[in-house]
Design goal:
The chain is mainly α. It has one domain. The protein has 7 helices and no strands. The radius of gyration is 16 Å and the shape is globular.
Length: 178
């Protein structure tokens, strides 16, 4: 699992982008009075950042490394949130390893990147419900969580589509021509 300096630097930039952009979106999501709105607002951004990271490295465990750095920083504020972030990275990489061709095709990169937003929701739900004993999630039935999971994955996939456009723009030096 050797990484070169360029990959590590890029992953550190992506972790800092998650921290800064995620914080701004987290504050924005607090203005929406819906349970789970944080994940709905953040899903496209999280998947976009992970897509750009995987597109750059095309290697397993990239999301885990970025999530670990991001989770350690967030653990300063909330240990449970840090654990959820690291868990989401691990499960997303495992999802990417299950997909045929792992990270060698555009499709596999998009699915693995989109799964990061879903796993962020699922792991946070697990930690909130089972570890901290928050009864709020017991009020809603499983249909609500299935719907939210599908919606979050779909929004994450939209983020990867935007990531594809962004990747093309970066590759062509800022110009995208049809």
């Amino acid at each position: 699992m050797k990484r070169n300096t360029g990959e590590l630097t890029f992953m550190a930039l992506m972790a800092s982008a998650l921290l800064v952009g995620g914080y701004m979106l987290y504050i924005l999501s607090k203005t929406i009075p819906l349970p789970g709105s944080k994940f709905l607002v953040m899903a496209p951004y999280l998947s976009l950042v992970m897509y750009l990271s995987l597109k750059h490295t095309r290697r397993p465990w990239t999301m885990t490394i970025i999530s670990t750095v991001f989770g350690i920083v967030i653990s300063i504020f909330s240990l449970f949130m840090g654990i959820a972030i690291i868990g989401a990275g691990i499960f997303s990489d495992l999802t990417g390893l299950i997909i045929p061709n792992h990270y060698s095709t555009e499709r596999s990169i998009k699915i693995a990147s989109s799964s990061y937003a879903f796993w962020s929701f699922a792991v946070s739900l697990f930690i909130t419900d089972f570890v901290t004993g928050n009864i709020l999630y017991g009020v809603f039935g499983p249909i609500t969580f299935i719907f939210m999971g599908v919606l979050i994955f779909s929004l994450g996939y939209l983020g990867t589509l935007f990531g594809g456009i962004t990747s093309l723009r970066i590759k062509k030096g800022g110009e995208v021509r049809d």
